[in-house]
Design a protein that fits this description.
Elements lengths: L8 H4 L6 H13 L5 H9 L20 E4 L2 E3 L2 H12 L5 E5 L5 H9 L2 E6 L2 H13 L5 E4 L12 E6 L8 H4 L2 E13 L2 E9 L5 E9 L11
Parallel strand pairs: 3-4, 3-6, 4-5, 6-7
Antiparallel strand pairs: 1-2, 7-8, 8-9
Helix pairs in contact: 2-3, 3-4, 3-5
Length: 225
C-alpha cells in the first residue's frame, strides 16, 4: 500500500511544519523500531500540524502526545505508527477507529488507502475532525456516538483501532472484528496500561499479544455535544 493523500505545497506550510521536519520525524520513528513502509510514508504525508491548535504547531512533529481540548490528546506519533503497522499486518480493507479525537489516526489510516469508519463521543472534537478531513479531501466516514458500542452497521471490520484505554477489551468491539481481523487497543488503568493486539482466528477463537506499555486517556461511555 502507498499513501493516497497528496497535498499542495501551500497546504503543507513552512518552517516547523515543513516536509523536512516531517521527514526527520519519520527517521526517528524508524530508529525507534517502526519498520512498515506504508505506515512511515503515511506519517510523512499527513500534516500533523493541521490536527492541533495553531499555538502548538511548532511542536507538531515532536514524538509526543499533545492536548487537543476536552481533556483529550493527539497520540504520540510512535504510538500511532505502532498501532497502524500492527493492524496492517492482517492486510485489511476496512477499519473501525474508536475515538476520533483530532482525526489524525484516522487520517493516517485513510492515507494508506483503507476504508475508515470512526466514532467519537465528543461532538465538538468530531466537528473539527470532519473539517480537517474535508480540507484534505479524505473520504472518512464518521459518527457521533458512544464508541464503546462500535459501529455494527458497517461491520464486521478487518481491523479495529481503539484510541482510549478500558480496563479490559470491550466485548461489543471484539464481536465486530472479522475472522482473520486484528484489533489493537490500550488496556488497563492509569499508570498501568498495555497496548494489546487481538487476532480473530478462523475457528472464532482469539489470540492476544502485548505490544508495548502505553498511556492513553480513558475510554468513557455516553456522548457529549
Amino acid at each position: 500500500m502507498s499513501p493516497r493523500l497528496r497535498l499542495q505545497p501551500e497546504a503543507v506550510g513552512i518552517g516547523m511544519t515543513s516536509q523536512r521536519v516531517r521527514d526527520r520525524l519519520v527517521d526517528r520513528l524508524r530508529d525507534a523500531g517502526i519498520t512498515d513502509e506504508a505506515t512511515l510514508n503515511a506519517i510523512r504525508v499527513v500534516p500533523r500540524h493541521l490536527f492541533i491548535d495553531e499555538a502548538l504547531a511548532s511542536r507538531a512533529y515532536e514524538d509526543t502526545a499533545l492536548p487537543i481540548g476536552h481533556g483529550q490528546t493527539i497520540s504520540q506519533p510512535w504510538v500511532v505508527a505502532r498501532m497502524t503497522e500492527a493492524v496492517l499486518q492482517s492486510a485489511p480493507k476496512t477499519v473501525l477507529e474508536v475515538g476520533t479525537g483530532s482525526g489524525y489516526q484516522a487520517a493516517v489510516l485513510g492515507a494508506i488507502g483503507l476504508e475508515v469508519y470512526t466514532v467519537e463521543r465528543i461532538g465538538d472534537l468530531l466537528r473539527q475532525a470532519r473539517k480537517r478531513f474535508r480540507a484534505l479531501g479524505m473520504n472518512i466516514r464518521s459518527k457521533h456516538d458512544d464508541g464503546r458500542v462500535g459501529w455494527a452497521e458497517h461491520g464486521p471490520y478487518d481491523a479495529i483501532v481503539v484510541t482510549a484505554a478500558a480496563s479490559a477489551l470491550v466485548d461489543a468491539l471484539v464481536e465486530q472484528l472479522a475472522v482473520g481481523g486484528r484489533l489493537v487497543a490500550p488496556v488497563g488503568g492509569p499508570g498501568a496500561q498495555s497496548l494489546i493486539q487481538l487476532t480473530r482466528r478462523d475457528d472464532g477463537s482469539v489470540e492476544q499479544q502485548v505490544l508495548a506499555p502505553v498511556t492513553f486517556v480513558p475510554l468513557l461511555s455516553g456522548m457529549l455535544d
